[in-house]
Description:
The chain has three domains: about 1-145 and about 270-330, FAD/NAD(P)-binding domain (3-Layer(bba) Sandwich); about 150-265, FAD/NAD(P)-binding domain, CATH 3.50.50.60; about 345-454, FAD/NAD-linked reductase, C-terminal dimerisation domain (Enolase-like, domain 1). By secondary structure, it is of the alpha/beta class. The protein is built from 15 helices and 24 strands. The strands form six sheets. Strands 1, 2, 3, 4, 5, 6 and 19 form a seven-stranded mixed beta sheet that branches. The protein has a five-stranded parallel beta sheet with strand order 8-15-9-10-11. A five-stranded antiparallel beta sheet has the order 20-21-24-23-22, sandwiched between helices. The chain has helices spanning about 10-25, 40-45, 45-60, 80-100, 150-160, 165, 185-195, 215-225, 275-280, 315-330, 360-365, 380-385, 415-425, 430-435, 445-454, and strands at about 1-10, 30, 105-110, 110-120, 120-125, 130-140, 140-145, 160, 175-180, 200-205, 230-235, 235-240, 245-250, 255-260, 260-265, 270, 285, 290, 300-305, 345, 350-355, 370-375, 390-395, 400-410. 1,4-dihydronicotinamide adenine dinucleotide binds near residues 183, 268 and 314. 1,4-dihydronicotinamide adenine dinucleotide binds near residues 183 and 238.
Amino acid sequence: MKYDLIVIGGGPAGYLGAQRAANEGLKTLLIEGRRVGGVCLNEGCIPSKTLLHSAKIYDYARFSEKYGITAKEVEYDHGKVIKRKNKVVRILVAGVKSQLKAAKVSLVEGYASIKGKIPGGYLVGVNDDVYKASRLLIATGSTPIIPPMPGAKEGMKEGRVLTNREILDLNQIPQSLVIVGGGVIGLEMASYYNSVGSKVTVIEMLDRIGGATDRDISTILLKKYQSRGIDFKLEAKVVTIDGDKVIYEHGGQEVAVEADKVLMSVGRKPVTEGIGLETIGVEVENGAIKTDERGLTNIPNVYAAGDVNGISLLAHTAYREAEVCINNMVGNRDLMSYNAIPSVIYTNPEVASVGETEETAKKKGIDIEGIKLPMRYSGRYLAENEGGNGICKIVVDKKTNSLLGVHMIGNPASEIIYGAALMIGKQMSIEDIKKLVFPHPTVAEIIREGIFQL
Ligand code: NAI
């Protein structure tokens, strides 16, 4: 059984890569060990957004008076919410499978392991079969980091300590939830469980939440969620889990907080073990597969895309990386660029960013001009976000007079940010951006407003 390409891993990088390859005429085999769709479709992006949307509707209903509507006896049915989430996932996974079928991608379910090199290609074993291919695309993704802290592994066995996988499938809302790590997953799940009634504590090692998020925006988000009752412990490092107690260090002291459930969201790491990379000598650096701008590893015709390269760990980056790999495989030179990749935290309000923040630009020694605008300058935002205090920050390179970064907090920032990514990716000058016509009234107009206020 000889293929032009074997794709290992069926998440966003793998399934899209396989589809694009087949469309380019490559005889393609996709091997997936768990579920087609990967973490994103099955236990990440899609299920979390489905739950968060239900929580948002619940919040709207409970706090609708500020919009002149009184809703009585609003109830949250967790069982039905989970059922709907499962339905959404099922539909999407079926959709991906049917697209793969339509593209004539062969699909094998099982864990793949590279067996070695043969003249003109590679051998890959799965279940009890061995397949041959002239090219490989490794897209094995990432897995949650479980720090080597006492009690963490035991807690997972007991079902008290959870990862992104289990937290999306609880059959009951926990009374109390401690979240270890105030990064993207931690904040999205804090938002959800706060809305649906858990007592949520977020313990974060840094002095801010949201990692590299712009500091002003991170502070607004922190205050918003503090006002809704989430308890944040900053500059606090979790060191031990002892039954229902989470113990963290803060200011030289050890403090314990009790929790029914604990979410471990301290980052993810690439999956590079157990796939036979060593049999053909694929270089792994700091736990991630090393690739060049074409997605190529150090081994000819062996490419890697998605979280496994450890660069960006975002599904949308994975899509583009996979496309870059396939384009290069079929001889269309294409280089990956990371300077305009948007990122979103799906809290309520949403946070969306692209490009340099004031902080990162200054660190790089770029001479910048920045502006910070209240989102309330947008009529549409004002109409739809009663009491909202969102902001939009714009960072411009003074020397080239081009846009470097846009960062916002306020709904629906996630749907707006790609416009800014386009402007940055295309290196548009401020003068060119001024000539763009935005639909009115939209929240996106805040970018135009900011550009004219520079
Ligand atoms: P993260 O890297 O975003 O955040 C982890 C946080 O945990 C950091 O702020 C770190 O300082 C803190 N931390 C580490 N050890 C700690 C300890 N012992 N005690 C207290 N705090 C500690 O990682 P997260 O949230 O697990 O997300 C993983 C990946 O998934 C991210 O790379 C993200 O890109 C991706 N993701 C993206 C989403 C999106 O785009 N909306 C949604 C969910 C995940």
